[in-house]
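Team,

Forwarding the record for the chain on the shared tracking sheet. I've put the sequence and predicted structure together so nobody has to dig through attachments.
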Amino acid sequence: MPNLLHRTACLLACAALAACASAPRQQAREPDEAEDVTTVQAGVRYALVGERFLTASTPRDNIDSPASWRAPDGKTWLIATAKGTHGIVVYDGDSGETLRRVIDKGNGAGEFRRPNGVFVIDDVVFVVERDNRRVQALSLPDLRSLGSFGEDQLRKPYGLWLQRDGDGYDVLVSDAYMRDDHDDLPPPDEQLDQRYKRYRVGIEAGALRAKFLGHVGSVEAAGAIRIPESLWADPMHDVLLLAEEDQADGTRIKVYDLDGNYRGRDLGRGLFRAQAEGIALWQCADGSGYWIATDQFKDRSVFHVFDRVGLEHLGAFAGRTVANTDGVWLQQAATAAFPHGVFYAVHDDQGVGAFDWDDIAQALGLRHACAD
């Protein structure tokens, strides 16, 4: 780890770490209700990386997750879900300027009810709607609804991940259903085998079609996900990372394969102290790269970096402002303002911060580009 990590802010004595380790178990909460844990309390170490911009602060929107898209004119759109006002907000991905707001509460086409996860692939944006219990797809740039899916299976969806599969898409959606008799507690492990729903989705003649393929989840205590939301996969290495947000059982990232089998390995158990959250992958064609996973501290979000292949922890960074992060998105391709890409992270439910990948790479001694 570079020496710079040892010269950056937020260090505590070992006594503080011991105090945190011996703290009583906390009651489990829903994914967007993290405990008020701070980096100061946890004694976490990180490199300080200043944000290049913060979008306008709009607390009423309750911004949850971002994704980016390259428009035909070469501009980068940063699309974020606004679960408080039931819609999406589009920012300029290079400056943070607000370009457009699509706020329309309802359950019809082009309407939303508490949108959470968002994912852009090709010229389509997929939006998870918790309270409509569905995933809606919209075309870009017109943001016209192409249809939705999942209404018959999803109970409390939050996050999603997609990959192209032939002429369609393979889709995984996290489903944070809770106990029928206790809405703030997860079910027992033996009822957790449907935490992730899998779909085959295609778009033909401007209309969406979807097929439910089954579910992913473990009922064994070691592999079960009690409070799910964030997920990301690496098909080249057959790795699926699932964020376990349950602080009572120890928040961390669990490692599965793409068939949904727990590999018996966790990332960051004992390292994540607030709540494991948004996940992103920086990847190169030769199989190398980095995983980035969020620890959702209330005072300052900490982003842990792991090796893509060996999964070793390589260091961590945090911004000067960005805190309480839900979703993140890595735009690895160059934009007008970010020649080696940009990492976007939601800030405290009210906007999005942007980190230049060159700044992150410099602070942690990482590669600036795959050619390095």
